[in-house]
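Journal club side-thread
Mid-discussion, someone asked how the predicted structure for our own chain would compare to the paper's figures. Pasting it here so we can look after the session.
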Amino acid sequence: MHDKLQPRAGVQRVHPSYLRVFLTFARNSLVRDMTFRSNFIIECVSSLSWMAMNLGYYLLIFQFTPTIGQDSGWGKYEFFAFLATTLFVNSLVQAFFMPNAEEFSELIRTGGLDFALLKPIDTQFLVSLQKIDWSSLSNFLFAAGLLAFSLFNLTYWPTLVQIVLYPLYLACGVAILYSLMIALAATSVWLGRNQTLYEFWFYITNFSRYPMDIYQGTIGTPLRWFFTFIIPLLIVVNVPAQLMAQPLETQSWPLAIFTLFAAVGCLWGSRVIFSRAMLSYRSASS
């Protein structure tokens, strides 16, 4: 399969601009969403309603307790900054990567992956970003408002260092979740139609939606260690949220440094898994 895809001798393959290709994908996805405006609006309203109900749930919890986790520092507005960080990360992942990961097994089944392999562009880039769910970005705007509200009500204001580092660690969190997602999607090459991807993804990422301080005791401590250093889900939201919502003096800098290495390591690992999956792939026509 791969030998047939090599360019002929004397033929120079022209590589397109990745930014231009991405902008084309973004434009095409927006045009498709605007073609069905009513459906787009319903998806946005539904997503925002779900976020509002979650916020109401936590408002109810804070009527009975001042903090989440004993001596954790996650008071009401600190936790709302944590929740905003969760929404930032999840909205980006769901907008740019989830639709494509869900369709990867269909590309294999229908033979669409054959055409992706023939394109003069990196296959992983192509299958990861060809479709964008713009309605999921409504949660990003909700998160921006929630974060601004939380910071306004905190007893201190983040420093310039915290403000600069916050988007960097948000990007690290997105990179870790994307790596896990594309690695799971790549297993479709060996497993066939991986229909349980979304369900498994939802269950495993639930661990990242709560402060790691609550994972204590006989059961909690091993879970905290496993989902920090083996499958680094807890650092996806905890590190950037803590960086923004709590003073610099309380930061765990070794964990912050580990997050940078974890993001790079996860991207590298997912690339290896995806590349091996492509080597194992057989054309739908073979």
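Post-session note: Residues 17-280 form one domain.
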